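Quick one, probably user error.
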């Protein structure tokens, strides 16, 4: 048996699944035991976040924020009102995701589901990464466009072993169950 190579080789003390993933993808830096978030949990958390921000805006603007979706206002000579409300809506969501990300390392919807956003090596996400992540999530709020991107990114989550969207992949983040992260990776999560 000494002169035969084993069909299974493990390097660096990894388990078999991590060894296969690291050979296929080039690396796997997610901390041991991390449970990655499913597409369903991520979508429901996103919907809750949108409901939270929209409800606050409805109360603050006495329901005037609805004009952001008013198609007759968009095609009228007074379309600038609809544009202003749409910009307020987008800016509010960006600010919400940015602030909750920096403060809690997740949005309130993600917090309700016990999810956390961390770098793919388990470290905390920086403010610049939250800026980029929050800005790029705004595409999911644009009517019609959101259907395409939502379906595409949901497919990416389902197809990738890391459950990452293209946004996650480019920024270098993962969405995981907060309790499954090692204590060192959890300390910044509130």
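Nope, works fine. Designed sequence:
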């Amino acid at each position: 048996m000494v002169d035969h190579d084993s069909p299974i080789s493990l390097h660096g003390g990894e388990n078999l699944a991590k060894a296969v993933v690291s050979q296929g993808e080039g690396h796997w830096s997610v901390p041991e035991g991390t449970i990655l978030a499913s597409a369903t949990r991520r979508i429901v958390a996103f919907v809750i976040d949108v409901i939270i921000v929209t409800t606050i805006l409805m109360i603050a603007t006495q329901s005037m924020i609805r004009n952001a979706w008013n198609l007759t206002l968009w095609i009228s000579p007074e379309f600038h009102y609809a544009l202003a409300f749409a910009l307020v809506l987008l800016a509010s969501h960006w600010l919400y995701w940015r602030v909750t990300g920096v403060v809690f390392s997740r949005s309130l919807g993600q917090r309700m589901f016990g999810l956390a956003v961390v770098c793919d090596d388990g470290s905390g996400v920086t403010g610049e990464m939250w800026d980029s992540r929050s800005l790029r999530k705004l595409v999911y709020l644009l009517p019609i466009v959101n259907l395409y991107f939502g379906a595409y990114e949901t497919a990416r989550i389902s197809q990738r072993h890391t459950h990452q969207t293209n946004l996650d992949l480019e920024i270098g983040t993962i969405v995981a169950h907060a309790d499954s992260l090692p204590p060192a990776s959890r300390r910044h999560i509130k």
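The radius of gyration is 20 Å.
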